[in-house]
Amino acid sequence: MPRMLYAEAVVEVLRRSVEGDDRVHLMGQYFLGLTPHRTMVGDLYRQYPDRVYFPPIAELGYVGAGIGAAIAGLRPIVDCATASFTFQAFAQILNEAANIHYMSGGQTSVPMVIHYNHGVRGGGAAQHSHSPQAMMWNTPGLEIVTPSNPADLIGLVLTAVASDNPTIWVDHVRLFDIEGEVPENIEPIPFGRASIPREGTDLTIFASSWMVRRSLEASELLASEGISVEVVDPRTLVPLDEEAILRSVAKTGRLLVVDECHLRCGVGAEIAATVAEHAYGDLLAPIRRLATLDVPVPFSPPLEQYVEPTTAKILAAARSVTGVQSGA
Amino acid sequence: MVVTAPAQSGPEDLEMMWRIRAFEEKASELFARGKISGLLHLAIGQEATAVGVCGALQPTDRVFSGHRPHGHAIAKGAETGRLFAELAGRRTGYCGGKGGSMHLAAPEVGFVTATGIVAGNLPLALGAALSSKCRGESDVAVAFFGDGAAQTGLFHECLNLASLWQLPVVLVCENNGFAEFSPLSAHTVVERLADHADTYGIPTETIDGNDLTVVRPAAAAAIDRARNGGGPSFLECLTHRLRGHYEGDPTLKRGAAARDEAKDPIQRFTRFLHDAARSAELEGIEVRVRAEVEQAAEEALAAPWPERDDLLTNVVAQP
Amino acid sequence: MTKTIRYIDAISSVLRQELERDDDVFILGEDVSYGGPFGATAGLSASFGPTRVIDTPISEGAVMGLAVGAALSGRRPIVEVMFADFVTLAMDQLVNHAAKIRYMTDGQLSVPMTIRVQGGVGGGFGAQHSQSLEAWFLHVPGLKVVAPSSVKDAAGLLVAAIRDDDPVVYLEHRGLYWTKGLGASDETPTPIGTAAVVRSGSDVTVVAVSRMVGVAVSAAEKLAEDDIDVEVLDLRSVAPIDWATIDESVRRTRRLVVVHEAVVTGGLGAELVAGVHATAFEALISPAVRVGAPSTPVPASPFLECLYAPDTDDVIAAVLETLHER
Amino acid sequence: MLPDLEPEALVVLLERMIVARRFEEELIELAGDRDIGHFHVYIGQESTGIPALSLLEQGDLSFTNHRNHGHLIARGAEPGPMYAEILGRATGYCRGKGGTLHLASAEHGFPTTSSVTSGCIPLAVGAGLGLQRLGSDRVSVCLVGDGALEEGAWHESANIAAMERLPVVFLCENNSLEALGQRAGEYPSSTMAASDLTELASVFGIESVAIDGLDTRAAHQTMTEAVHRARSGGGPTFIEARTVRWPGNRPIWPELATGKTDLSMAWDASLIRPEHAIWHREQDGLLGFVRELLDSGCVTSDAALGLDKRATERVREGLAFALDSPYPEPEEALEHVFAPRGD
User: Fold this and answer.
1) The model's pTM
2) Which of D112, D157, D335 is the best substitution to test chain A (most A C-beta atoms within 10 A)?
3) Rounded Cα gap, residues A169 and A179, in angstroms
C-alpha cells in the first residue's frame, strides 16, 4: 500500500473533493497552517483558480458567507486556520450553521465543511493553541470529525464533503508530518464508527486527533511493562460511536481519556460521564481524564509542555489506573 | 494641565529606531538558532511609526498593540532585556514567559498589552479611552494595527464607537500593504483605508509612515486633539515591512527590491539629520545600541526558566 | 430587615447600590438607559447619567472588548448582553482577551468586569434566543461563572461579581426574573465558588443549577411523599465548582443526579459526573444520572419547548433510576 | 408616487399590503388574548417591502430578520402556515421549530431567517457567492434594519460582496426614526456615528441610494435596477429606505396604538382622530398607497374595501387554520437536527 504524509493527504482529499464535485469550492488558505507544507496547497489553488476563494481577515464574514453559499447550492470547504479564530466566527458557526436545518424544520440544509487546526503546536501561547471542539460538541447541529492518520483523514473528509450537514473538520499541525498507509482506492468512511488502532485487555485509552499518536506511543511502552492497552479512536465526535467505547470498557474494565481540550467540560468530561452512566458495572477503577490543564496555554516551552497531555503523562496515568507502580 | 506633544524629532529618536531594529534583528537570529520558539512577527522597516507616535506620548498614555508589537513596546519605554527574556520564555520576562512575543505587556511604562488577534486590541484601546474620558483624566489611548485589521468587523464597530462617544483615542494604521501574506488589493477594494474613518466623521490623515519627520508632527497633532477633548483621530501610515509575515515564512518573496534603502526609515532619518548638520550627534549610535541589545539578549538567555509552580498562578486573582 | 422582592428587582437594586458605592463601576449595553428588554437597569440612567449607564450600538464584539480595556484601566464595567446567544458575537473578546490577559501578562494586569447574560428557555424565543451556555464558559480558564437561582443569591452573587478582580459571567435566567423571594437587606456578597444545600437529604444527591434548582426541589418534595429523602445542592457557582460540598454530600448519599437546562452532551453535567467519578468512585453505589436538554437546538413551538427543558417528572425518574439500578 | 406598473399589478401590491397589515393586527389582538410569546411587527414598512420584494422571481433568495412577516407575505407566503409557525403548530412552515423569529419558507425564497441582528448579512452575501459561482442569474437579497449596520458582520460582508462583485441587494429598512430611545427626527440613529448610512456601503464602491420608505415607486424602481445590476454581473447594491416607526411598535411589545386600520380614512379625512393624526395623514404607507391609487383611478373606494374584506377573510381563515392545527408530535423535537445521512 502506498504511504503518504498526513499533509499530503490533506491536499489529496481537497483535490479529490474539488475534482469529484463542481459544487465544492475552497475558501481560505491555511489548510496546512503556517507549516512548511503549506506550499503544497498552492499547486492545487493554481490548478483550480476558479474554485478557490481567498477571503480577507474576516472570519465572521467569510465563514458566514460559506454558510450562505452552501444554502445557495455550493458545497464549500471553509478554512478557519488556527482554531482560536473560530471564536470570531462563533456567531455564524454556532448560531447559524448549527441551527438552520432545525429552525427551518428541515427545509434548508447547510452542506459545508469548516476546517481548523487545533491544539498545542509549540509557542502558540494562549491565543493560538485552542481546541474548541468541546464547545462545538455542546452545540447540537454540527458534525465533528477528528482524524488521526492519513487514511482516516481522506475517508472521513470525503464523507464530510458529501454530507448535507455542516461538518467541523479538526486537524492538528503536529499530525502533518505523520506518515501512514493509504489504500489506492480509498472509500469514504461512514461517520460514527470508531476505530481500534490497538487492541488490549487491561486498559482502554480513548483519544482523538494528535492524542491518538501519543496514546499509541505510550501503549507500546506500556506493553513492555506488561500492561495491555486498547486504544479507541472515535474518528467522529458527532456522531459518537458510544457502543465501541462501552464494548472496550466492558472488556478492560478501566478507562483513561486523553484529550487536548481543557479539562473542565472538555471532550474527556463527556466521555467519562457517558461511561460512568452506562458502564458503571464494568468499571474496576475510577475513570481518569488527561487533558490540557485549566490555564490559558502558556508560551514558555517548559510551561507549555507541562500543560499538555504528553506521552510521559499518559504513561503515568495508565500506570495509576491499572494499579501498576510507576517505574515498574 | 494640557500637555503638548513634541512635534520635532532628533537624534534620540534615531537611537530608538536603531534599538528597535537591533532588537528585531537579534530576535530573528535567536529564532533561527532555536533560542526563541513560537510565532515571531517582525516589523523591520516600520520603526518610524512606532517611534513617531510613541515619542509624542506621555508616560501615562496607554498603548495597545497587535501581533507585531516589539517596536511599539520599545518605543514606549520597555526594556529590551525583559522583552528578550519574554520572547525566550524566561522567568525574568515581562510576563514571566507566559505571554511570548504576541502578548507582550509592560503596563508600568504604558505599554498595556499586545494581542495575537488581528484587530483584537482596538476595542481595548477604546475602553482605556472611555475610562479616561469618564474619569476626566487626560490620558490618551493608542491602538496600532495593520491594514489587514481594516477588513475586520471589530474595526468597523470601533470606528463607530470612537466617533459616537468622541473618545480620546488615536487609531494608528500601519499600512504596510500586506495583510499576512496577501497584498491589500486582495483583501479590499478600498484603496485609502482612512476613507472608512471619514465615513464616521473621524479626522484622518494618510501619511508617509517611513518618514519620521512626517509621522511625528501628525501624531502629535492627533494626540493633542485627543487630549484636549477633540475626540478620535485616524492616522494611516503608509509603510513597508522588510520581512515576511513571520520568521520562517516559506513564501517570502520580498527580496532585494524590498530592501530598497529609500524606504528604510532609519536611513532616511539619518540623512535628514545629516542634512540638518547634526552629523556629529549621530556618531556611534548604532554601535552603542547594538552592543546594548547584544548584552540584553545575552542576559535574557542566561535567565532561568519559569518554575512549574508558576504555571498555575495568575489564572485568576490570587486570594 | 428583609422584604419579598422579585429576582429582577434584586438585580436592579444591587446595580444601583454598586454604582453608588464605587465610582469606577459603570454599565454598558444596548438600550440600558431605557432599562433593557426586561427592565433590569430601569431608572439607573436618570440617577447616574450617561457616563455611568452607557447605551451602546449593536456591536457586541467591540463593546465586550471595550469593557476589557476599561477594566485594564482600573474601572469595573458591567456589560449587559441582551441574550446569551449574542455572546457568540463577542466570543473572541471574552475568551481570547478578558479571560487570558491576567495570565498572559503574569498578573501585571487585572480584568475586573462583570458580564450579565440573560438566557434560558421560555416564551418561545427559539434557537437563537434561548441557549444555556455555561459549559462553554466553564471550559474557558480565567473566567468565573455564576448562576443564581434564588432572589437572595441574585443579589449576593452580583455583589460578589462586581467586586471581584476577575471577569465574572453572571448568568440570569429569563424564567426566574419574576419569581419572588426574600431579598438581602444589606450588601452581603455570596462567595463565588460555594454551593448551597437547599434541601438536606440522605438518599440521593441532586446537583442543580439556575432555574433547575426549583424544579429539583419540587421533585424532592414529591419524592418525600414516598419516603425518598433527596438532598438538593444549588451549584450557584459554575466556575469554580465547589467540589468539597458535592463530595461530602455524595459520600453520604452515595448516589448522584445532575440537573441542568442546557444540552446534556458536553454540558456542565458531564464535568460534574466525571469529577465525582474520579474522586468518589468507591462511594457511589449506582451510576450517576444526568438530566438536561436533548441534543437539539431549542425549538420555538411552546409545546415543543416545554418538552425540551427538564421538568419535575424527569428529575423524579432520574432519582428513581439511581435507587433501582439494574 | 405609484410604481410604473399595470393597474392589475398595482392591485396585487395593494392586496399584499393589506394582507400584511391585517395579518399583524390580528396577531396583536391574539397576543392580547393568549400568551404567544414575543414578536416584532412590520407595520409601517409595507410600502417599502411589498413593492420591492414582489418583483423577485422564483429562485431568488432572500434573507430576513426578526421583523420578517411583511417580507414573507410580499413574496407570496400564506397567512395560514405563517400563523401556524408563530403558534408553534405542526402545519407551520418550519413545523414549529422556528417560530416568529425564524419564520422561513424555502419555497417562497426564504431558506432561513436569523434573528440575530446582522446574522443574515453573511448568509445573504454567501448565497450571492454561491449563486455567482454556480453560474446562476438569480440574486440574493439581504433584508436588514439600521441596527444591523452597527455590527462587524456588516463591514466584513460588504467588503466581500464588493470585492467579488456579488449579485446581492442590501435593502436596509431604516426605521430608527422615533425608535426606542431615539429623539424625534434623528436619522440615522443615536448609536451610529455615520451621518449617512449609504456611505457605509459606498466606501466599498457599492452602488448606494437612499429612498423615502413611503414612496412605493422609489422602492419598486430602485429594487428593479438593483436586481437588474445583480443579474447582469454588475455587483451589489445598497438601498436605504427611510421608513417610519409605527407608534404601536413602542416600547418593545407591539400594541394597536393607532387602532385597527380603517381604509376609509384614505378618502374620508373626517374619520381621522387627532391623537394619531400625523400617522394617519402622512406616515401610514398603506393609506398613502390607497390615496394614490384612488387619485390615479386604478381602484375605487368600494373596490379597495372589497379587497380589504377579502384580505381580512383570508387572514382570519389562516388564523383559524392555525388555531385548529395540531401541535407537532413530541418526538419531532428530536428531528431535523441533522439532514439525513447518505450512509
Assistant:
1) 0.88
2) D112
3) 19
